[in-house]
Every structure is written in C-alpha cells, then in structure tokens.
C-alpha cells in the first residue's frame, strides 16, 4: 500500500501564492501524470511530496500517516538532470542507493547483505539497459544513459513512491521513446505509486493511469499574484471511454 493523500495543500512564498488548495488522493499503484504551464507550481508540488519543501498549509499523507518532511528512502526521485555521484561508477552509484534504502531496516550492510546489494544493483543496471557500462563513470555516459542510471538509482532504494520531474525532458525523441518503454514495466513490477511531472502531453497520457492539470485561475483581477495553481482537469484513464486512438 502506498496511497498519497494531498489534503488542502497550499504553497505560499511571502505574499506570493504558488499553489492554492490542492486536495486529491493518489491511489496505491497509480501512475499520476501532472501537466500544466511553466511556472504554475508543478515542481513545487513534487518537492513538497518529496519532503524538500513544506506546504504552507495543509498536509501530505502516505497511507494515512504524515509524510516525513525530510526526503527518505520511501521516496525515490528523478529530476530532468540528475546529479549522480561523478566519482563512483555506474555500479557504485546503484549499490550506494540500494544500501541507503536497506539501511533504514538493517543499519550498515555487511557480508551476505553486502553481496545482495551488489546482485540487486547489477539486476537493476541490466534492467535499465546499462549492463555493458557498469564499470564506467557517469562522465563517460550519454544523457540518456545518465537518466537510465538515475532511474536505476531511484529504484534501488525500493521506494514506495517514485517522483519524476520532467525526467526525459532533456532527451531526444528516440531516447525518450526508449525511456517510456523502460519505465512502464519497471513501475508495473515494483507496484510503486508514481507521480510524474511533464510538459509532454503524449508522455503524460501514454504512461499515466491518471492525468491531472494544474493551472492558475484568476479570480480577483485587482490582486495579481494573490492566487495560485489549482487542479483544472482530473482524468482517470483507467475508466471506460478513455481509450487511446
Ligand atoms: P513549474 O515546475 O510548474 O514550472 P515551479 O514549481 O518551479 O513551476 O515554480 C512555480 C513558482 O513558484 C515560480 O514562480 C517560482 O518562482 C515560485 N517558487 C518556487 N519555489 C520558491 C521558493 N523557494 N521561494 C520563492 N518562490 C518560489
Ligand atoms: Mg518544474
């Protein structure tokens, strides 16, 4: 189970309202795509779910319990440009992420647990198509390969929730299509809840089981800045009638 409840969440910075009263639930195992114009608060929302930013009002719950307001191993994240550790190899990066994820149960890993970390990291590296590159450093990889590494790293923590902030935005169309083919089965196998921010509508609809659009709705023309983004569309793509054509 990993249901996320967004309960009357606001984001305000000084007197600027960025997000105004988001109130919805993301069901366990859903793949939620979030779309909306640039600057409307999508990344701010994702950072709040990650625990990097705090809502100025309202609450975020995971399975009914408040999400810790520090990032933790329950939440994996991939940004548009992810800073993987440059001094570690592909394998080293994924092993480290796995160890961070496991250490919440076990503390520091030794012996068999350490071997298991390497095995699991190798499985994930193969799963994202980097099997031939496991001993390379990130600087030797293309942008698409670095995003694959970032995904392997996020999954190595065995997170309940995977947060993706325009993860494929910097990639060329061919690589992007490859990443779509990669992420869907990984999400299905892991049974995670995914929230992906994207400005690519095709990506939003192809990958998502639900698409939510944020937008700023002006309701007081005399008070510029005194309104924030709200949900303007909320489409459940698993319902009959919502079929791709
Ligand atoms: P999006 O990801 O939809 O393009 P963002 O969430 O990055 O939008 O930004 C939404 C707005 O929130 C922007 O106007 C940005 O300047 C503002 N904002 C985000 N974080 C902060 C912050 N820490 N302090 C002040 N303003 C912020
Ligand atoms: Mg953004």
Automatic annotation (TrEMBL):
Gene Ontology molecular-function annotations: ATP binding; ATP hydrolysis activity
SUPFAM superfamilies the record matches: P-loop containing nucleoside triphosphate hydrolases
Keywords, in A-Z order: ATP-binding, Nucleotide-binding, Transport
Gene3D superfamilies attached to this UniProt entry: P-loop containing nucleotide triphosphate hydrolases
Record domain ABC transporter: where: 4-241
Keyword flag Transmembrane helix: no
Family: Belongs to the ABC transporter superfamily.
Record's protein name: ABC transporter ATP-binding protein
């Amino acid at each position: 189970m990993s249901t996320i409840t967004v309960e009357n969440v606001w984001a305000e910075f000084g007197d600027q309202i960025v997000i105004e009263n988001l109130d919805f639930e993301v069901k366990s195992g859903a793949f939620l795509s979030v779309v909306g114009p640039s600057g409307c608060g999508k990344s701010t929302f994702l950072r709040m779910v990650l625990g990097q930013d705090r809502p100025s009002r309202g609450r975020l719950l995971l399975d009914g319990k408040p999400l810790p307001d520090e990032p933790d191993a329950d939440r994996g994240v991939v940004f548009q440009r992810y800073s993987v550790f440059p001094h570690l190899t592909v394998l080293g990066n994924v092993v480290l992420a796995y160890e961070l994820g496991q250490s919440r149960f076990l503390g520091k890993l030794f012996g068999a647990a350490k071997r298991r970390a390497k095995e699991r990291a190798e499985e994930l590296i193969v799963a994202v198509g980097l099997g031939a590159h496991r001993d390379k450093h990130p600087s030797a990889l293309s942008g698409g390969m670095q995003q694959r590494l970032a995904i392997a790293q996020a999954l190595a923590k065995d997170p309940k929730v995977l947060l993706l902030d325009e993860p494929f935005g910097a990639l060329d169309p061919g690589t992007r299509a490859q990443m779509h083919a990669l992420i869907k089965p990984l999400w299905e196998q892991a049974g995670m809840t995914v929230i992906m921010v994207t400005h690519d509508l095709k990506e939003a609809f192809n990958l998502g089981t639900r698409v939510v659009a944020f937008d700023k709705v002006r309701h007081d023309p005399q008070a510029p800045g005194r309104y924030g983004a709200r949900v303007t569309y909320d489409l459940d793509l698993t319902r009959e009638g919502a079929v791709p054509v």
